[in-house]
Amino acid sequence: MKKYLVLLQTFLFTTVLTQVIAQEKIKSDGPLSITKHKISINGKTINYTATTGYLVLREESGKARANIFFVAYTKDGVADPATRPITYSFNGGPGSSSVWLHMGALGPRRIQMTDAGESEAPPYNVIDNEYTWLDETDLVFIDPVTTGYSRPAEGVEGKEFHGYNEDIASVGDFIRLYTTQFERWSSPKFLAGESYGTTRSAGLSGYLQDRHGLYLNGIVLISAVLNFQTILFDTGNELPFALYLPTYSAIAWYHKKLSPEYTDLKKLLSEVEQFAMGEYSIALMKGDKLTDAEKQALTEKLNRYTGLSKEYIQQTHYRIEILRFTKELLRKEGRMSGRLDGRFKGIDYDNAGEHFEFDPSYNTAIYGPYTTAINDYVRRELKYENDLPYEVLTGRVHPWNYTNVQNRYLNVAETLRQSMVKNPFLKILVCNGYYDLATPYFATDYTFNHMFLDKSLQKNIKMTFYESGHMMYIHKPSLIQFRKDVSSFYKESLTR
């Protein structure tokens, strides 16, 4: 289990016109950079202010606990905050900064990629993001403690923030403090989290309501994981083998490893989902009670849906673990497929190895461009200077504290259910990538189907799907559709 927790935590996302630049000390006790910009969205110009720097979390005695780095974008000329939504956004890890959503999809500037989502040659370009959410909502990007430029205050240990409960409290307290200091209590409030950031979002929905009385209008869950039992390949936990199978099929289909009769991805996945929830799940439950005939039938089906050899499938006891799949699928080509996004291929040192050397959908595609983008953009365009290393995706937060769920799996779907019952106006948008092996879409579907939410509230949840991976927005067609889906979600969430 430890191996997969570490993997989840490691992974488990305008031409700007500067009119006014000011370094000043205000309520947050930190030097903030305030810059003015504008962007054109669908032919309309939006003038906005970027506020960059630290918000200091303090004990009631006044002692500093943490310096939390944020970048906020607020539309200029809004007289009444009640008419302007605000969205608090973050990625996951644990150990990830907010760079992926900030510079990939939501913010007014984004890193330029190919339309397929591949990296261009360094040093890379930052361009206007015509798909920014700024026409819908103000945006606050939060880097949890020890990610980005965020750090514990002097004399405070990082472990006070590196855990499920600890993280929920610090991020939740930041949101409460920002909402208070920048006078946004009357604004409609949203969260947008990716990967472990969806785990955080579900936890925050409860913490913000129960601790601070801060009720949300909506949550956007991007590449969600709420029930960790659905993704951890522990011996004796059969659930992930069935829930990952449709994603294996999608990736095998993309790389043309399945029968040419499968010309339509969605029809294929519908067939595989039925098999996974029916015949395959029953077979997994039977274990050694399977007859020879059942084993043969199972071998044929898994070969048909994964493209893996029959011999290999039998050797795995019909249980295909994620990192074995990424290595085995393209082994004959001398390649391995990606984990965050199975569309990507990489070249390994040892083609006979069991697991890949690195994730090509991370190390080859996004790590370099996004790191360059945030470091250059913050200093040159937002005029914020900080010589600390910007921790894009760090292991410094580990070990992550899960003492709240010792000897069981973390499942925050129940927290989300309770939040929706207490706040029946809360709307949820769940965004899934078909080629995402970090948080597979069918596992998310399973989780929401097991919330046992009252029928009167089920209409508050909407699911969308994209032919991309974990960061579905790096794929331009998916980014365009993602933006349309989000726009509809905000309009529906604000309709009374």
Mean of all residue-level pLDDT scores? 93
What is the ordering of alpha helices and beta strands?
A: HEEEEEHEEEEHEHEHHHHHEEHHHEHHEH
**Class by SSE composition:** alpha/beta
Which spans of ≥5 residues are poorly predicted at pLDDT below 50? 1-28
Strands, count: 15
Count of helix runs: 15
Taking the alpha carbons of the first and last residues, their distance comes to 45 Å
Helix fraction?
25-40%
The major beta sheet can be summarized as: 11 strands, mixed
Bin the strand percentage.
Answer: 15-25%
Model description:
The chain is of the alpha/beta class. It contains 15 helices and 15 strands. The model is unreliable at 1-28 (pLDDT under 50).
Features:
496 residues; alpha/beta; two-stranded antiparallel sheet; disordered N terminus; 11-stranded mixed β-sheet
Give a topology summary.
Blueprint: H1 2-10, E1 21-25, E2 31-41, E3 44-58, E4 64-75, E5 86-90, H2 99-106, E6 109-111, E7 126-128, E8 138-142, E9 151-152, H3 164-181, E10 189-195, H4 196-212, E11 218-224, H5 239-254, H6 265-286, H7 292-306, H8 310-315, H9 322-328, E12 336-337, E13 345-346, H10 360-364, H11 367-380, H12 413-422, E14 427-433, H13 441-449, H14 455-458, E15 461-466, H15 476-493
Parallel strand pairs: 5-8, 5-10, 10-11, 11-14, 14-15
Antiparallel strand pairs: 1-2, 2-3, 3-4, 4-8, 4-9, 6-7, 12-13
Helix pairs in contact: 2-11, 3-4, 4-12, 5-6, 5-13, 6-7
